[in-house]
Amino acid sequence: MSKRTVSKEVYDIDGKPPFREAFPLAIQHVLAMFAGNVTVPIIVAGAIGAADERAFLIQCAMLVAGLATLLQVYRIGKMGAKLPIVMGTSFGFVPTSIAIGNAFGLSGLLGATLIGGIFEAFLGFFIKPLRKFFPPIVTGIVLLTIGLSLLPTGITYVAGGNGAEDFGGLNHLFLAAVVLITIVLLNQFAKGMAKMSAILIGIIVGYIVAIPMNMIDFSGVAQASWFGFPTPLKYGLTFHWEAISAMIVLYIVTAVETVGDISGITIGGADREATDEELSGGVIADGVASAVGSLFNALPNTSFSQNVGIVSFTKVMSTHVVKIGGIFLALSALVPKLGALIAAMPSSVLGGAAIVMFGSIAVMGIKLISSEPLGNREVLILSIALCLGFGFGTVDGALSAFPESVQNVFGGSGIVIGFLVATLLNAILPKEKEEKTHQKKYKKTAEHTA
């Protein structure tokens, strides 16, 4: 396997590599996003007193993530970026979802998800005229902030995951190290599919090593049924302005993240900037997927940054690969036992892979920022936006003077602050005068040299 040459189709957006290559690469994507996708409904259901509904909500999250992924890779009209984008339930909505769920129940939460998704889809149609406000310095800062904001999450996984009784234990650190070392060795010294599937193989090795370490509980697999279909509109839909307005703000945030993720995929996988059609289609599909997903009892969906990291790491741009992953996700929702088997994976296994994936996202942000000359103006924008964005996103309580609703939007990852500051500075700081000054200095220097 390690000596076989990988077909060129895996690097082509429209390429269709043979199934023996495409399937493991697709499962690599699924394993990378699975824990994050199912963790959101688990957290929200437990926080709003609906713990008994967790298994059903996980099933819904898997189905909608699969369908949303397919919507992204199959461009239908203006919907879909037609890029290897993997969708899943968004962590960014967790605090607000808990607040809405406690106030209005699951029906109010899903109703706000529906309206917010429609709003984001509408917003997607205006990406092209707004594109001039998103030069590489702005989108690069967003992507860099996304990567940096995910690093603590990756280390949390490495240490055993939130709530682990032995958080930070040597068993978790050892398991994450096994996964990371496996990935590095395969990426550097293997060839063909072994190199391309380094993350998948690393996760599988970690899973197997965890079994004799008694770090996997298979009781959930035994209890899960073999077949089941998520009932649409099980909780109904109700609409409350307070809930809807809060969701709309967060959908603006997730649109910004999606722009950053799409830019990361094209820069990292194809070494080019994203087109207007790709950005617009991606944001529209994000909104439509979330709106339709609410009908199937799923919380807001968005592009998953860890899968952007995989594309950047492997350079696999084939949408055919991600299509298979989307189909697998949707089908696994119909076989709860399969989902339970993947869900049993220790967080530290995913953590070992997350170090590579999340770090790759930050590096792609740096690459995008440096794709154009960095003058004094660009350095100033980068310095202020990165410091305020990442700083406020990582220091708890730094925005405590503001209402909780403001903290939920601007705190957390800090992506919104970084984006707003970068966009504002890029719009108001003079650029033409600086360029002329540099041109004059260059001309004088050239004349002097001559």
TrEMBL record:
PROSITE patterns, per the entry: XANTH_URACIL_PERMASE
Record carries keyword Transport: yes
Cellular component terms (Gene Ontology): plasma membrane
Membrane topology: Multi-pass membrane protein
Subcellular location(s) of the protein: Cell membrane
Keywords: Cell membrane, Membrane, Transmembrane, Transmembrane helix, Transport
Protein name per Swiss-Prot or TrEMBL: NCS2 family nucleobase:cation symporter-2
Lineage: Bacteria, Bacillati, Bacillota, Clostridia, Lachnospirales
